Amino acid sequence: MDIYQQKRIKLIESAGEKEWVERKIKELNETNRKRDTRKFYKDVRNLTKLPNVTTLVCKDKDGNILSKKNILERWQKYFKELLNSETERINSIKTHEGSINNSELEEPTCEEINEIIKNLKPNKAAGPDEILPEFIKMEVSN
């Protein structure tokens, strides 16, 4: 056993984890003996990778860090405010003051329509009519 393996085993506290590490080391040695370098380095990387430790920090409205006890309460307040303010936001949305008069719009010319069809991008999803842009382009170009 090399020094790294000995230090790693010393850090492990429970007997079950020691057995697991010893079994993994044997598997690594066997993989290395078989000259399966890809699997060997992958397994070494997985064993030596440090655990991903994240700390949960939650702040109140004033920016103060909350204790673990108050985090759940803060989330409850946050969602109540979020969901209750939805109706206020809907009511505060300004509607368009003037409506568009369809009689003021000119109908598009055939040239404009052909130009738009010519500029359709390929490999896009069909619209509600379920016609692919490629089919429309083929029809216009024929």
Poorly predicted tracts of residues: none
Shape annotation: flat
Distance between the termini: 76 Å
Write down how many β-strands occur, each being a DSSP E stretch of 2 or more residues.
0
Percent in strands: under 5%
Which structural class do the helices and strands define?
A: mainly alpha
| Number of distinct helices | 6
How can the largest sheet be summarized?
none
What can you tell me about this protein's structure?
- By secondary structure, the protein is mostly helical.
- The protein has a domain at 3-48.
- 58% of the residues lie in helices and 0% in strands.
- The protein contains 6 helices and no strands.
- The model has no long low-confidence stretch (mean pLDDT 78).
Key attributes of the depicted protein:
about 140 residues, mainly alpha, about 60% helix, about 0% strand, flat
Concise description?
The chain has a domain of 46 residues. The model has no long low-confidence stretch (mean pLDDT 78). The chain is mainly alpha-helical and 142 residues long.
Topology of this structure?
Elements: H1 3-11, H2 15-33, H3 37-48, H4 68-92, H5 110-118, H6 133-141
